Amino acid sequence: MKLKLLLAMLLASQALHAETLIPQPAEQRYEHGKFVINSRTTLVYSPELRDAAIYLLDYLPLKRLSPNASSNNSLRLATDPSLAPEEYRLTVNSDGIVVQGGGYGGVFNGIQTLLQLLPDGIYAKNRRLPAEVVHCEISDKPRFDYRGLLLDVARTWIPAERLKRYIDLMAYHKINKLHLHLADDEGWRIEIKSHPELAQKGGFRGGDSPVHPRYAKFDEKWGGYYTRSQMRGIVAYAMARNIEIIPEIDMPGHSRALAAIHPEILCGYTPDTSATNGLDLRNVWCVARESNYELIDDIIRELSEIFPSKYIHIGGDEVDVSQWESCPDCRRLKREKGLQSGAQLENLFISRVSEILSRYGKRPAVWNEAVKGGLLRRSTRVYGWQSMKHCLEAADKGYPTIVMPGEYLYFDMKQSPSEAGHTWAAIFDAKKVLSLDLRKSGFDKRLMERVEGIEATFFSEIYIAHNPESNDYLDYMLFPRLCAASEVAWCGERKRGWDEFYESLKGSHYGRMNSMGIAFRLSTPKVTYADGTLSASVDDGSEIYVTDIRSGKSSRYIKPITTDEPENYIFASRYGNARSRDVAGRERKRLKPEVSVTSSMPFSAKNPASNAESYSGRIARTVRAAHAGDWILYTFSEPVQCGTIEIGTGHLHLRRCLFLKGRMEISYDGKAFTESVPLHEGSARFAPKRPVLAVRIVAEGNSDAENNVVVQAPKIIK
Ligand code: ACM
Ligand code: ZN
C-alpha cells in the first residue's frame, strides 16, 4: 500500500514535469533518477558547435573539451543529419546529457530545453554546481520556421546592451527572428557610412535635431543609433543564439526622419511650416525622383554588408498616396506607366527597390498593404499586420506570409482598459494570444503551406512616454504575451489550452522569468466588497499589496479590510520584479453635471466640444495648436459639490496634443477665478472645499508639436 502511494506520487511528479516547459516539446518522457552536473562534468562538442558551447558555458561552469572526445559524466552537443535543421533530441540518463540537433539551431533549441530543466537560478547566471537534471528523453521540433518578434527601435531608442538582453529573452523562448524596425518618422537608427548625417542627425529628436519630438520628452534632444561595428556585433550575438536579424527601413511612407534631413526626397518640395509649428508632416518618398534610388542604393548596399539575412524589409505600410497625387512628376510617371492607382505606384516603387535588393543578393519583405496594387512579385515576403483577413489575402494570392494580425500579436496594445497602450487593434492579454488558431481563422491546407510563421510585435510610439531608459514598460508589454506567442509558433496545432498553459506559466515559468530579471505582467488580483468587508485574492501565488490612497501608504495585504469606503484602497500583486495592474476596491462614483465647454481655439467639426460635454470618453479637438493665453473653459449649469475635479489636455497615457505648460483655474461664482493649480503633463486635479461653477485651463506657452489640442471631458469624482 505504502509502495503504491509512493509510486503514484512519483508518477504525479513526473506528470508535473511534463507540463512545465514553455513552449511545450512535441514528445517528452521522464524517468526516475537525476543526472548531476558537477565540476568534473565535461562539455563535449563538435567544432561547428563552438558558439553553442561557449553560450552554454555562460550558464554552467564546465570544463571545456573539444571535438568528440568520449567521456562518462559528459554533456555532449552533436549534430545528427537525420534530423531537420531546428529539430533536436535531448537525452538525460545516468551517463550524462546528450543534445543532438539537425543543425546549429536544433542543438541550440535543445540547449534551451535543457536550461528550462535546470534550477531557475541558471538564468541569473549564478553558475552554481552541482545542478540536477531529471532523466528524460525529449524529441522536439518547431511547427513554424519563422518565430519572430519585431522591436521598433526607431520610435523609441533601445541601446545595444539592452537590445542584447531582449535577444537573450527571445532565445530562452525559442523565438528565432528579430525584425528590427530601424527607421521611421521619429528616428533613423543605423549608421550609413556613405551618408553619416542619417544617423548623426536622424538618430536624435528634439533640441537642435531637425527631427521633431512627437510623443514625449519635448524639451530635450534624445536618442541614439547603432554604429556599423556595433550592429555587426549584435548580429553575431543573435546568430550565436539562433536568431536572424531582419532589418527594416520603412519606405516609401514613414520616412519623416530621413525627410527632415533630406527634404529633397519628398514630392515637389516646398517648406511647409504654417499649420504645424514648423513640423512638415509629409513623410513619403517621391517615386519619380530618379536620384532617390541612388540614395536607396547606398543604404541597401551598406545594410547588405551588415546583415547576413536573405531578406531586407522595405516597409510599404500606411503610405499617404495623396502626396503623389499632388506631385506633377509622380502623376506623369503614373500616366506613362499606365498605372491605375496610388497602390500601383507604390508597387512600382517597391519593384525599383527590389531590383536594388537583388543587386546585393537580397530579397524584399513588405507590409500587407503592398499586395493591394496587384503588381507585387510573388517571391516577395508579405507581413500581414492589419487583420487576419489581410494575412489570408496575402497567402491566398500566393505570397510567403508572416502572420502577425494586430488583434493577437501587437503587444503595444493595452492588456486591459485601464492600462497603458494603444487600443486600435484590440485590448488583449496572453490568453488571447494563445487562442490564435490559424486553421480556425480560415487557413486551409493550401494557405497553410504559404505561412512561414508568426511574429509578435512591439511598436514603440508611446514607449518614449513611459520611462524608456528602463526595461519595465517593454518587459510588461511583452511578457507573458511573448511566452504565449512562443507556444503558438513552436507548437502550432498541438499548443495547449489556456488552463494547462497557465498552470505551466505560473507554476514554473514565473520563477524562470523572475530569474531572467523580467518585469513581467501578473494576472489581475480579484477584489470583492460585501457587507463592509473588502477582500483580495490571486490565483498565481504572487503577493498582494494594498495602498490607502488617503495616506499614500502601501503594505502587504494579509487579511480582509473592514471599511465603508472601499474606493480608498488600491490593490496590486507583485512577484520579484513582476507586477499586476492596479485594482480599486470600488470604482469611485463619477458625477456628470451638465457642462458647457468653450475655448479661445475653435473646435473641429469631427471632434466638437460636445464630445467633452457628454462625458462619452470621446475626445474634443481644436483645429489649431495653442499659444500662451489660450484657454478652455468648462462652465457648469449648477454649482458642483464634489471630492475632486480633473481637467486635461492631450491623449490619455500619452503626452501628445497637450498644453506643455499652464494652469487650471477655479471659479466659485462663474466670474472670478480665485484659485489655481499648475498643469502636470497637460492636466490638473483640484479638491474644492466649496461648490464650483466653472474651471478653465490656461496655456502659458505653446502646445506640443501637433497642429491641434485634444480636450478631455472633465473627471468629477464624488
Ligand atoms: C504597421 O503597424 N504600420 C506595420
Ligand atoms: Zn513625386
The helical percent reads: 25-40%
Identify the strand order in the major beta sheet: 8-9-13-14-15-16-17-18
N- to C-terminal distance: 65 Å
Q: What is the number of helical segments per DSSP (H or I, 4+ residues)?
A: 19
Text of the CATH class of the largest domain: Alpha Beta
Question: What is the radius of gyration computed over CA atoms, rounded to a whole number of angstroms?
Answer: 28 Å
Oligomer description: single chain
- Strand fraction band? 25-35%
Overall geometric form:
globular
Average pLDDT level: 94
Chemical compounds bound to the protein? acetamide, zinc ion
What is the count of structural domains? 4
CATH architecture of the largest domain: Alpha-Beta Barrel
Looking at the structure, the CATH topology of the largest domain is TIM Barrel
Describe the largest sheet.
8 strands, parallel, barrel
Given the helix and strand composition, which structural class is it?
A: alpha/beta
Low-confidence regions = 11-17
